[in-house]
């Protein structure tokens, strides 16, 4: 019996030594395939089976789009305040600190300048990993300053939106007013002859979709991105109608004229460069 027990223990140890480390595999949200995580990451976080585009962080997006070591971040010193003393499950300042520690970001947007294939431009990105990329006062201020800098320096402007949270309820009307503030700045930029390319990714919703994300001179979208104001479930419950298949996807919006082109992530960098060159005087 002792000999059998030893054999069993040896088998158990062998099994544990062969156990696959946690995080090596992942499941695709598009086709449910089990994927090798490293392969997905090497493919710009796109499923090799069905081309489902996984969300990427703002820092990953910068690496994918810009020429290496050309990004210069602006306005990183801006920090959110707590104008309403908002407290749901935890005070708003505590939530901000927790998000900063978890994501390594100070807020849900990064803005700055960089180069795409040698073309200098102003870049803004909202990151859905930080309170769902929701737009508070700092996000609005950063994006507005980026627009103003693009106008002052006469540079093209690209904003990549990944905001599933829309306007940030924790800041109330201070958040909602950012929609008008950024839109007004974009109006001045357009009147001055600026080029604004808006890139919509999964998800782009709420006040972001209802303001600056929809105001691009050219609107690009990644495949199968969810884009809209209220989510489809809320719309169905409110108006009590069955929505069309694919409603609020980038494919549906392209068909109905809201989006100019759907671009695979691997082609986005080249497409932006081509559009800027085409629009150059």
From TrEMBL:
It is found in: Cytoplasm. InterPro entries: AcCoA_carboxyl_beta, Acetyl_CoA_COase_Trfase_b_su, ClpP/crotonase-like_dom_sf, COA_CT_N, Znf-ACC. Zn(2+) binds at residues 28, 31, 47, 50. GO terms for biological process: fatty acid biosynthetic process; malonyl-CoA biosynthetic process. Signal peptide: none annotated. GO terms for molecular function: acetyl-CoA carboxylase activity; ATP binding; carboxyl- or carbamoyltransferase activity; zinc ion binding. A zinc finger (C4-type) spans 28-50. Component of the acetyl coenzyme A carboxylase (ACC) complex. Biotin carboxylase (BC) catalyzes the carboxylation of biotin on its carrier protein (BCCP) and then the CO(2) group is transferred by the transcarboxylase to acetyl-CoA to form malonyl-CoA. Gene3D superfamilies: 2-enoyl-CoA Hydratase, Chain A, domain 1 (3.90.226.10). Acetyl-CoA carboxylase is a heterohexamer composed of biotin carboxyl carrier protein (AccB), biotin carboxylase (AccC) and two subunits each of ACCase subunit alpha (AccA) and ACCase subunit beta (AccD). Residues 24-281 form the CoA carboxyltransferase N-terminal domain. Belongs to the AccD/PCCB family. GO terms for cellular component: acetyl-CoA carboxylase complex. Pathway: Lipid metabolism; malonyl-CoA biosynthesis; malonyl-CoA from acetyl-CoA: step 1/1. Its cofactor is Zn(2+). Its EC number is 2.1.3.15. This is Acetyl-coenzyme A carboxylase carboxyl transferase subunit beta. It catalyses: N(6)-carboxybiotinyl-L-lysyl-[protein] + acetyl-CoA = N(6)-biotinyl-L-lysyl-[protein] + malonyl-CoA. The keyword Zinc-finger applies. It comes from Aquisphaera giovannonii. Keywords: ATP-binding, Cytoplasm, Fatty acid biosynthesis, Fatty acid metabolism, Ligase, Lipid biosynthesis, Lipid metabolism, Metal-binding, Nucleotide-binding, Transferase, Zinc, Zinc-finger. Binds 1 zinc ion per subunit. It comes from the Bacteria. The lineage of its organism: Bacteria, Pseudomonadati, Planctomycetota, Planctomycetia, Isosphaerales.
């Amino acid at each position: 019996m002792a000999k059998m027990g030893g054999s069993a223990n040896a088998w158990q140890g062998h099994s544990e030594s062969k156990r696959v480390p946690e995080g090596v595999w992942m499941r695709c949200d598009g086709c449910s395939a089990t994927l090798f995580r490293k392969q997905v990451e090497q493919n710009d976080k796109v499923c090799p089976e069905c081309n489902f585009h996984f969300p990427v962080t703002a820092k990953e997006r910068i690496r994918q789009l810009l020429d290496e070591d050309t990004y210069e971040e602006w306005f990183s010193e801006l920090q959110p305040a707590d104008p309403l003393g908002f407290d749901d499950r935890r005070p708003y300042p505590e939530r901000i600190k927790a998000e900063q520690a978890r994501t390594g970001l100070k807020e849900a947007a990064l803005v700055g300048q960089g180069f795409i294939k040698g073309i200098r431009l102003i870049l803004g990105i909202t990151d859905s990993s930080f309170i769902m990329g929701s737009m508070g006062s700092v996000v609005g201020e950063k994006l507005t300053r980026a627009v103003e800098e693009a106008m002052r320096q006469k540079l093209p402007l690209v904003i990549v939106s990944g905001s599933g949270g829309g306007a940030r309820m924790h800041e109330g009307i201070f958040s909602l007013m950012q929609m008008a503030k950024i839109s007004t700045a974009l109006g001045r930029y357009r009147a001055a002859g600026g080029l604004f390319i808006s890139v919509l990714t999964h998800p782009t919703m709420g006040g972001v979709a209802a303001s600056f994300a929809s105001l691009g001179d050219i609107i690009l979208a990644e495949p199968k991105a969810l884009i809209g104001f209220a989510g489809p479930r809320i719309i169905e419950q409110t108006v009590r109608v069955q929505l069309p298949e694919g409603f609020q996807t980038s494919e549906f919006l392209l068909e109905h004229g809201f989006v100019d082109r759907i671009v695979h992530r691997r082609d986005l960098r080249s497409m932006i460069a081509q559009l800027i060159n085409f629009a150059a005087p």
